[in-house]
Write a structure and sequence with these properties.
GO terms for molecular function: NAD binding; oxidoreductase activity. It holds the Pfam family 2-Hacid_dh_C. This protein is an alpha/beta fold and 310 residues long. 31% of the residues lie in helices and 16% in strands. A seven-stranded parallel sheet has the order 8-7-6-9-10-11-12, with helices on both faces. The protein has a five-stranded parallel sheet with strand order 2-1-3-4-5, with helices on both faces. The chain is elongated and about 65 Å long. The relative contact order is 0.12.
Length: 310
Amino acid sequence: MRLLIAEAEHTRYAELLAPATGHIEVRAEADVNALLALADGCDIWLGQPDLLAALLRGGHKPQWLQSTWAGITPLLAADLPKDYQLSRAVGIFGQVMAEYVLAHMLAHERSLFARRAAQAEQRWDNRLPRSLAGLKVLIVGCGDIGQAVAEFLQPFAVELTGIASQARQQAPFSKVLAMGALAAQLASADYVVNLLPDTPATQNIYDAKAFAAMQASAVFINAGRGVAVVDADLVSALQQQQIASAVIDVCRQEPLPAGHMFWGAPNLLLTGHSSAPTQPALMAQLFIDNLQRFNNGERLHGAVDFARGY
């Protein structure tokens, strides 16, 4: 059995996995051309979807591919094979994503950026902050990351509502509703946190109609996928003060090109796809667990249904 590691941090991954993969031949690289030369005969792949998609396109295919990203969009392209086992990274992003969401909620309620600007102008800013307690937080996407964010926010006494593919009971949410209920829930939310994956059903859902439904004091946080947002409609909503502000971590095109409307949009903060980086130690542990499951013929953590796209 051979393991191919296709990662920018491939040396670190090889070190972390060494105790559990001593019986496996490990090949590791970050350069696509080098990976193409190494991929032949490798049954298991671990790494970045963008690099591994290039290998699939080059005619190679594993028995099992473990993505180090939660998002697997590059591997779902129509021209790529889908007759192998694919698992995405799950259960390792909750803490850092929750920290990201909470940080920006607190920054908004405490007016941190406005106070920093006031200091630069030597202007005394003594506006009073608002507590998070009692605020309504709508989390759109209630998988393992959305669940972790909700659990992290619960001690702050916010009111948690979730939107998922299907309605269900899921603590600590007061309710989790189906996607069809999104429009109605937008009207009462103080914070709208998008954590949805990229699927045909989740594209362009935040459009002019959605932003018009939100409160003028609402904050929109997108840490899911850029394709969920109609860029021009978000900028227009900010310009017309239909919503208070937006925190955008993910964009349709990354890096965001020069001249894009987001750069100069009022009350829009770009965070450069930094909300929840993969932590190699946690990813290595997930891979080791899934390796045992793969060898035993068991269902993998984060197993992907190609038809659903996640």
